[in-house]
Every structure is written in structure tokens, then in C-alpha cells.
């Protein structure tokens, strides 16, 4: 995923489904380096991880 698309998803009022390694995640923020994002799993666990944005996939 490109940094601009991550920013669009974060500012969107629509829910956009994003996956990381096949698992649905919420994007919390695009990190300052522009190459990583802080995400957490959808569901009861709110464990946050920093991932490379090129590994995020938008579910169509």
C-alpha cells in the first residue's frame, strides 16, 4: 500500500477493510518515516504492532 492511500483510509468516514498477512487490522496511524504504520487486530485484542505499509492490503 502507498503512504497516500494509508492517509486516505485514515481520514475516510467509510470503513475500509485492510489486511496484514491475511488478518483484518485497523490502521491507527501512519508513522513519521512514511514507510511503517501502527495497526491493531480487529476484535477484542488491541495489541498494537508496527508494520511495513507495503505489506498492508486493501480488501476489495
Automatic annotation (TrEMBL):
Keywords: Sporulation. The keyword ATP-binding does not apply. Induction: Expressed only in the forespore compartment of sporulating cells. It is found in: Spore core. One of its GO terms (biological process) is asexual sporulation. It comes from the Bacteria. InterPro entries: SASP_SspH (IPR012610). HAMAP family: SspH (MF_00667). This is Small, acid-soluble spore protein H. It comes from Oikeobacillus pervagus. The gene is sspH.
Amino acid at each position: 500500500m502507498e503512504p497516500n492511500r494509508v492517509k486516505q483510509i485514515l481520514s475516510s468516514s467509510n470503513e475500509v477493510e485492510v489486511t496484514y498477512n491475511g488478518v483484518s487490522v485497523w490502521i491507527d496511524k501512519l508513522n513519521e518515516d512514511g514507510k511503517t504504520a501502527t495497526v491493531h487486530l480487529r476484535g477484542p485484542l488491541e495489541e498494537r504492532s508496527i508494520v511495513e505499509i507495503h505489506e498492508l492490503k486493501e480488501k476489495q
